[in-house]
Design goal:
372 residues; D-Maltodextrin-Binding Protein, domain 2; 2 domains; 6-stranded mixed sheet; 5-stranded mixed sheet
Amino acid sequence: MRLILLPIKTVLIIMLAGNAWAADAKLDEIDWQKTLKAARAEREVVVFCEPTLEARNALMQFQQSHPDIQLKLNPIGAREFSTRVLAERRADKFLADVFSGGTTSTTQLLVPAKALEPIRGAFILPEMADESLWFKKQFHFADAENQFVFLNDGTVNHDHLIRNTQLVRAEDIRSLWDLLQPKWKGKIVAYDPRLPGGASNNMRFLNYNPKLGADFIRRLFSETDLTISANTRQAMDWLASGKYSLGLFIGRDIETALKQGLPVAEINSVKADGAMLTSSAGSITLINRAPHPNAAKVFINWFLSRDGQMSWQKHTDRNSLRTDIPKESITNWRDKVPPDDGSYIFTNLPRYNDLRPAQKIIDEVLGQTGKR
């Protein structure tokens, strides 16, 4: 065996680097133990989350990891939560620690109102700082400042178009452009894309997709005689009953409809237009002036940890952007997990936030057709 002798200077550098790493790890552990102790003294953490059973079940696993910190989970939609926080602050009330859910309202309302804390400041565990553990080896944020609305979920979605399985075959539509065929005129129901939530990610996909864009949006709303609904559940009922053959932007109710045995399904064959990658309810924010700041840090470190994100995947059946956890447990995981070199639009990224051009087109078209 050949013995390789390193220069003394190199050996010293390696030793110093090792000592520095060990010192940092020790400081992290000390900081973590201090935070845990303070969190236990606070006794509880108040977390608001999207009102789906799946999201609630995922977050409730925190209680098993930290039984001495009571999790007070409050199901609420992102827009309702954001307006509630702003109203509470006008009354000088500060009741929320953390929000886990949608991104549109938090970025449009809470970020400008300076109601959020930069989330990196809550990262204590060593793995929290390691961006290489995440998709494309980086953290992803919904806000332009890349500080406040952390995206933990990125799942490839095909839910912008739903079919009645008794009236439409999956292979009938290969591209959204096929919706302009005369045979579908008057047979499509859509959730109103001008309303909060629901269709916002779908409209980003349409608007910023070079294969679709403004021309497609204008023709979709002017040539197909769409029926516009302000209620996704009502639209899904109409679709399932056969009143309409196709449904746009109502995919948020697809899981409930399938559990009820209704004859509806996503059209996964629409791949010619590229894929839509969304976080859905998969983001987390730290509220500033939180009543339980240490417990909030503990919750965030758990949620973004390997165990926390495995819980998210298991209960929501959606893809965590952490890449160091197995994906095979996700139903049809090969269709839902984005490859690094895939062709998709990650609609929750800030570059896709501006929906005003698309909304202007829709307002003009629906105004002309009398559906305003």
